[in-house]
Amino acid sequence: MVKPLAFKGDKKPKKRKAAPAEDDLQVEKKARESATDxxxxxxxxxxDTPGDINGPVLIVLPSTPPSCIACDVGGKVFVSELExxxxxxxxxxxxxxxxxxxxxxxxxxxxxxxxxxxxxxxxSCDNIGIFSARTEAMSPEETFAFIASPDTPGTFNIQTQRxxxxxxxxxxxxxRGDAESVSSTTTVRIRMQARFKPKLKANKxxxxxxxxxxxxxEDAVGRKLDDDEVRKLKKARVEGxxxxxxxxxxxxxxxxxxx
Length: 259
Prior knowledge:
Layout: H1 24-42, E1 44-46, E2 55-61, E3 67-71, E4 77-81, E5 84-86, E6 89-94, E7 102-106, E8 113-116, E9 122-125, E10 131-135, E11 143-148, E12 155-159, E13 165-168, E14 175-179, E15 187-193, H2 198-210, H3 214-221, H4 227-239, H5 242-258
Antiparallel strand pairs: 1-15, 2-3, 2-7, 2-15, 3-4, 5-6, 7-8, 8-11, 9-10, 11-12, 12-15, 13-14
């Protein structure tokens, strides 16, 4: 289930109290881990490659002051000034308004991406480079290619299906979709929620695999384990050979019993 978007300043939902039967220290540990997972998942990070772009995204424009692409409920697309940044650095930008957020989704069988606004309509660019967000379904006008910039890592040029590029005007007040070539006005940053970034998602899944207690391991083996056996089983769990390792430790335990 997709979590609702969270912005800086929002109050975190209160967590349920742990059942009285659980040990207080274990409850405190779980609470810390849960809070860390929420913070990591809801934080905004920079997309590094086109393959990263998925889920809620913020399209940061190369303007002064820093701004992004946004739309209102009527589908009007406009330039929206950014407020949530560290020392006005656009590489740290986060949305402060849901109108600044687009849901990126891959188009099956292609490298193209569709961008759905907060109101459920798709970003579209017509044949003269004018943007709107009033379409409920995707056609070629609602799909875009994100091309990594060769000069600045972590930035992209967004190309329409007419092979034109998205750009911001020099005064920073309007976006267009008719630039003939890449330039400083077409180079954007993509900020996204951490839980959708493949590399971070994989790291989180690996951490989840590591989170198994000594008691759970001993229950699986059926006896007390020494420190070396615990380390071996945790490593095997991460590497994908957990069940084989469990069998090895069980067999070793039987041999030790009768030796």
